[in-house]
């Protein structure tokens, strides 16, 4: 097999181009768990442009550490013996739902194979139900794609140091449980998440995806994911039907508009 060196004695397949990350506390042999400094960070993402952009951004911030990119967990499995074990794996599940048996199997298998190195999920949604699923499967981090690269890096370092990262927006979604009235004040409770409620309300008012994304500080692709999930939850076939069903299910909301 053709291979390329990194100058530190480690060999990688020619098809895998390592980038360099700067050593930080969690990346050095004096960091969390006494991990040696030559263990790479692995990024798994099926979209080449997306994974290479992320790798380049991480490399720019942390230039002394290898970052290896793969299109799938299967590709990583084929090459995992070609170099040192990873210090962490960042798996981009994108818009896929963690309830999907294939996604669950992929995450659980990675967690089992990599322990004690952390598996960190990158995703297009900050829904609390998805965060809980990720933690249930053993992931040590849940990073929505709406965060900055700096937050992403800190989340990776936290997970490598033994912590668990979840987005603050997901935690804030639980605040209604501690407020007077609790669940009774939320007519959507049990049907939609708080974020889905915000998107559904915007749809009901006829707002376009771009406007919804701007108002809720989300990516437009994330808004589309929320809309698809809302459609599944209320059995709607399009956004017009979503608006109609929201009005039909919760007519009392109209009185407050």
Automatic annotation (TrEMBL):
The keyword Endoplasmic reticulum does not apply. Residues 185-250 form the HTH luxR-type domain. It comes from the Bacteria. CDD domains: LuxR_C_like (cd06170). Residues 40-160 form the Response regulatory domain. GO terms for molecular function: DNA binding. GO terms for biological process: phosphorelay signal transduction system; regulation of DNA-templated transcription. Keywords: DNA-binding. It holds the Pfam family GerE. InterPro entries: CheY-like_superfamily, EvgA-like, Sig_transdc_resp-reg_C-effctor, Sig_transdc_resp-reg_receiver, Tscrpt_reg_LuxR_C. This is Helix-turn-helix transcriptional regulator. It comes from Sinorhizobium alkalisoli.
């Amino acid at each position: 097999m053709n291979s390329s060196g990194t100058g530190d004695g480690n060999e990688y397949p020619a098809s895998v181009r390592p980038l360099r990350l700067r050593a930080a506390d969690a990346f050095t042999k004096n960091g969390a768990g006494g991990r040696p400094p030559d263990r790479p960070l692995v990024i798994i993402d099926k979209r080449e442009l997306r994974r290479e952009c992320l790798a380049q951004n991480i490399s720019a911030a942390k230039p002394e550490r290898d970052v290896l990119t793969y299109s799938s967990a299967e590709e990583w499995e084929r090459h995992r013996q070609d170099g040192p074990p990873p210090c962490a794996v960042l798996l981009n599940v994108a818009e896929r739902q963690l309830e999907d048996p294939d996604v669950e199997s992929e995450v659980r298998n990675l967690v089992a194979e990599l322990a004690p190195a952390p598996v960190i999920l990158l995703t297009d949604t900050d829904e609390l139900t998805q965060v809980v699923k990720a933690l249930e499967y053993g992931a040590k981090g849940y990073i929505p794609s709406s965060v900055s690269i700096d937050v992403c890096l800190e989340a990776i370092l936290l997970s490598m140091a033994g912590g668990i990262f979840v987005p603050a927006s997901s935690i804030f979604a639980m605040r209604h449980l501690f407020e007077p009235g609790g669940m009774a004040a939320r007519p959507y409770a049990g049907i939609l998440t708080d974020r889905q409620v915000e998107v559904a309300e915007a749809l009901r008012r006829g707002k376009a995806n771009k406007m919804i994304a701007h108002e809720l500080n989300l990516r437009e692709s994330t808004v589309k994911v929320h809309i698809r999930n809302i459609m599944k939850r209320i059995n709607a076939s399009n956004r017009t039907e979503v608006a109609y069903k929201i009005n039909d299910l919760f007519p009392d909301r109209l009185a407050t508009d």
